[in-house]
Design brief:
Chain A has 11 helices and 9 strands. Chain A has 2 domains: 201 residues, NADH:ubiquinone oxidoreductase-like, 20kDa subunit (Rossmann fold, 3-Layer(aba) Sandwich); 102 residues, no CATH class. Chain A starts with 5 loop residues before the first strand and ends in a 26-residue tail after the last helix. Chain A has 332 residues and is α/β, with parallel strands linked by helices. The longest helix of chain A has 13 residues. In chain A, strands 2-1-3-5-9 form a 5-stranded parallel β-sheet, sandwiched between helices. In chain A, strands 4-8 form a two-stranded antiparallel sheet. Chain A has a two-stranded antiparallel sheet with strand order 6-7. Chain B has 16 helices and 34 strands. Classes of the chains: A alpha/beta (332), B alpha/beta (663). Chains A and B meet through helix 9 of A and helix 15 of B.
Chain lengths: 332, 663
Amino acid sequence: MAEKPKVAFYWCASCGGCDETVVDLAEAVLDVVAAVDIVFWPVAMDFKRKDVEAMPDDAILATFVNGAIRTTEQEEMAHLLRRKSKLLLAFGSCSHLGGIPGLANLFDRESILQAVYCESPSTVNEEGVLPSVRHNDNGHSVELPGFYETVRTLGQVVDVDFYIPGCPPTARILRTALQTLLGGELPPKGTVLAPDYALCEECPRKDSKPVNLSISQFKRPQEVLIDEEKCLLTQGLLCMGPATRGGCEAPCVQGNMPCTGCCGPTSRVRDQGGKILSSLASLLESKEEGEIDQALATIPDPAGSFYRYGLPSSLLRRRKLPDSNLEPPKVR
Amino acid sequence: MPEPKDTGSGGIGVYVCHCGTNIAGTVDVNALTEYAATLPGVTVARNYKYACSTPGQELIKRDIHELNLTRVVVAACSPCLHEKTFRNVTSEGGLNPYYFHMVNLREHDSWVHTDKKAATEKGKDLIRAAVRRVRLHRPLERKRVSIDPNVLIVGGGIAGIHAALTLANAGKHVYLVERDATIGGHMAMFDKTFPTLDCAACILTPKMTAVKSHPNITLWTLSEVTQVDGYVGNYKITVKRKPRYVLEDACVGCMECIDACVYKQAKVPDEFNMYLGKRKPIYIPFPQAVPQVVVIDRESCIEFKSGKCKKTCVEVCADRKAIDFQQQEKTETIDVGTIILATGFFTFNATRIPYYGYGTYPNVYTGLEVERLVNAAGPTSGEIILRDNRKPKAVGIVHCVGSRDENTNRYCSRVCCMYSLKLAHLIKEKTDAEVFNFYIDMRTPGKGFEEFYNRVAEEGTHFIRGRVADIYPDPAGDGHLLMCAEDTLMGTVRKIPVDMVVLSTGLEPQPDAQEVRRRFHLSCSGEGFFLERHPKLAPVSTFTDGIFLAGCCQGPKDIPDTVAQAGAAAAEALALIDIGYIEQEPYTAQVLEEVCSGCKTCIPLCPYQAISFVEEKKKAEINEVLCKGCGTCVASCPSGSIQQNLFEDEEIFEEVEGLLAYA
């Protein structure tokens, strides 16, 4: 029997939801297991880093890395897996675009560590101990991964062959992506393995959107009784659908919640947040500056709304650091 | 996927223009040229004294041939000035004209900086951006749109009349649409015209009759354009024709019906005479009105009010059967290729300046009212008789009423000084009254204008330089009005008793100018007049292709300027008609149909109504002919599914990155 293609999964800065997707394949996961050999999957199987290091280069057909790159360890693993894999896939929003962890780029490392290890209400840390790369205790020294100032996408750290979008990718997106990889011809390198149109295309509420939509204020989901049939934008809800890649079949909208943009922009857009801003701003009803300010004030968290999943991969990338010294990343 | 772009590994020619010393005086053109030669992809970089000159153009063409250039960058003046020139050069050299990019080294660099070193560095940045962008340029083609030879002219004043006759004489069919019952406009109301004192009616009415009898002119009075669809060369116009209640084809203009009207006396204030005279419910606006057809005013006609009139008018009309109380409003649609707007002006409402007492003191008149008073065909047969039946012995004329005034209009209405002088002359001639002209500055900058001013001064008209601050009844109680002004030449406040005050009211946009502007997709200047495409070089064109402006709808002007502009507008229309087609710049936007998600964001944003939603496909679609390439939809498309030629994202990003990359 011919050797089955080897597949690996890895987990960087993320919540673990992407690994859930693999499980969400349900019965289909059996087909996957039948078709491939999983050689590395820390969350589910007992393989170690040294097992990967022992493999010849390009030994793995495809490695799915979820999570953004935030620590030295994640960066090392990204390089290692790149070397060992024929195909490296960024799997899910964090590794594709930066994801929710990428919002950390609105702050600097110092203030993040302060907030988490000193200021949070449930923390008791009188000595103000912060994580550090080297720690000495009773003559024993231990080395920990370093924590970068800036969260990066996988593609900003290593060469990535394909991207699978979503937070997490839906089972259907993953299934379709696997079929693409296992069967026949591969798409051009760098392709996002999902349709290249915006979500409105497959939105069940598409027909209810008028041609002359104008928005006077935005509402948050908890502030309104949401009509289950009508386009959410026409109801004043900030729906990212028009600026977000489709393929997920709009589960959020079907669940009566607006799209938050996890699949990122289409291939033709460099900055998803900038695009939706440009589009929504042009649909504002008022032309008076004061009223426009009032309308925009109804969006309490613009960065978190427009760049929820994609700040590190956007044109903004991060908040400017005081010394504006972005490269190379500093390690604590 | 978009087609692969030719990013070529070489073949770019860069030409730095000195523009005499305009550029070379502030920018080190030699350093720029040397720098440009080092940029990736650049085959040749040269500088030349005047790149736009014939030898400059030849130099570029020769390089294209001899060095096999594939792209051309010229760093010179504004693209507004010479982009076309160099595109032609690129084309004549054998390349697609859009394989060219222009760097605005003059307006964006040398003219706005003084530090030569810094300006040179900036020039390098600008050239680097252009070189990086031009590599991504794609070949584009101009599209041709055919031009319907029929012309619509809106407004039948002297501007509309002159343009209509010019076009009709050239053999083009003109639809002249006028809102009132007659053409002639304001000019028909004037008595004499400055500075020659020609009788306005004598020079205008022959042109009015020529309009009516011209086989190439369709004249629709009592009509308004309600809708404008289409685009240059192919406009579809909807016109609402209001009922006259008199059949134009049947009425012979004998006016027996007016005599026969059950109203024996004229009782209705007469609009044409500025309400200083009276007319009957069935009337003709003035004796030389065109068309020579009576009109019935629904508001005052007894038949319309009660339905119980004896209809003596119908009786006397007899077999001609011209009167039709049942006439209904009609809607017509016409196809035209070009449009001339000549919708005229509105005279400033003098009650807006209460201290001048217009509407309060009967002997305060507006200039236009006095035109009718001095006119032999006017309500007093040309005698100046005041509202209290006196003849004035002293008359004060106030210049700049509603002009050059922070509280009303800041602009100068251009004609008031001259018509004030004319009225001073006419009043003096007819009454031998003392005439006082109160002026701020005397503006007489036309042919024969200053001479006319001198003549009026020599005739004994008094000129007082000062803005009239107040007009009020003389407490002495002899019926005089006191005009109070600071004489800035004498340095003293003067109070002049007069019998009659003439307010030289300024010119304003028509009250419905904004509606008309929207209907015809035009822009307005700050004052509300229609905006020309360029104040100097395209004074009768608008930002909408195929729509031209004539007369005071574009801004205050006198009759000679109006007629000149009407002729120019007619010539612009003729130029389009005679060539038969228009070439459209190809930098239009297109919807990438396969990836458009149909989110409809773009549709309401297009200022030219070029985008529609195709229900069957559930996608947006752009009418390429209507698209002006403004880029609004491109910027707004949230999924990046609208692309604009010459302004593709990649081209713009490449340019930005080129600009920001440190040398």
